[in-house]
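pasting input
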Amino acid sequence: MSETCAVSIDQRMRADIAEAIFDQRMAPGTRLSEAGLGEIYGVSRTVVRKALFHLAADKLVDIRPNRGAIVWQPSPAEAHEVFVARRVLETSLLAEGLARMTETDHAALDRILAADIAAHEAGDRQAMIRASGDFHRRLAAPANNSVLLAFLDELIGRSSLIIALYEARDAAPCSHHDHQALLAEIATGDVARAQAALAEHLRDCQNRLVLDAPSAETPALADLLHRPRRA
Amino acid sequence: MSETCAVSIDQRMRADIAEAIFDQRMAPGTRLSEAGLGEIYGVSRTVVRKALFHLAADKLVDIRPNRGAIVWQPSPAEAHEVFVARRVLETSLLAEGLARMTETDHAALDRILAADIAAHEAGDRQAMIRASGDFHRRLAAPANNSVLLAFLDELIGRSSLIIALYEARDAAPCSHHDHQALLAEIATGDVARAQAALAEHLRDCQNRLVLDAPSAETPALADLLHRPRRA
DNA sequence: GAAGGTCGAATTGTATCCAATTGGCCGAGC
DNA sequence: GCTCGGCCAATTGGATACAATTCGACCTTC
């Protein structure tokens, strides 16, 4: 009843939490107590747990047995791996899909780019992150493989979290200039050059991260691990 | 506390069900009733649901709202996509990892190959599927990216299900001769040739599937959907 | 004063209970 | 004879109740 749209309440919770994470309202490490969330949404812990479990499957939250769920805190090493994974996956998808691109694809990419630019001008960080994600998703769509696309989707979500954690607050999550240049390369139809441009863009995104700032405990741990046995 | 090993009961359930699927004891489409499984394992539906939800995240079971969980029935199109995804992912991982391979890696691959051959000789289908999965997993390990490795892991699981569904019962899931030849190519260190051999091997696996047998209901369903009812 | 242990509040894990949905069965009506 | 309609068993979805675990605070002890 209550005709709460077509989406179930747990889907709404998942979307809300994900959005809050991407928008930096929820910092990594934030505790997500079952009772608290249930209170907010007016549902029992059962459905909260379902939502949290789903978010955990997407690697956006970390469920620690008997110790509750927190927003995922990727280590610098994990952040690195995610971006390497994106480079590998996206360049492959681009190679698969480039030849198959139609006018519709180009138009869609142009449209997303325009939205990206608009978000930049408006300084709307959340819209920028969303537009950037959409751009990369759309770029991979012509490869026409929903399995790989789902993987990319997960990686984009994790990237958003990583960017929210490690990137300077005022920096742009993804340069739309890069996207623009990339579209130019794509228009030429040269696979190798387009791949190179995409890889370079992702490397830039990665390099913009500051992997030493985060919180208080990770650096200390890393220090210990980097110290070879000689104390 | 029942010292039930270190693994929780729901992990055991997941492993059992996955094994049963891969070993063709549970055919795709088999209903997995919550009460039934809870009875078998002596736990409440709560933990059964957790296990089923996890299996659904791995795409091994399909949870249909209000209608229960069944073993995933990939359509021919989905099966195709999974194998394309594997080709893309594994060749990329091989390119990333080939230069980094050590003696330990080669030894591990040889060991798995030996187990694979032994399983073939013994006619142990389950061991063959497991050995084949291990081989591909180990092949990807040197790339040293746990994110992509996790994706591959999921794809291997789904492949096992697909093979169980679509492959002739007496056929081998993966030719160990291919694996052997692939190792030879890898030993030369030629990335392009190793990639080609791997891609060819995966294409062979895919071609061995018979994608027309289990077509009892899908076409009929599609027909119905195209016809507005009540004329 | 510091270290260690114990107790207690808070939170998660599991079981059980009730409501809602599904799908089939049977009977009424055309 | 066939179809449409409403009941009924079975199963899932969600809420609540209870048990188990964690973590912090306080107290004791050296």
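fyi The beta strands of chain B are 31-32, 61-64, 68-71.
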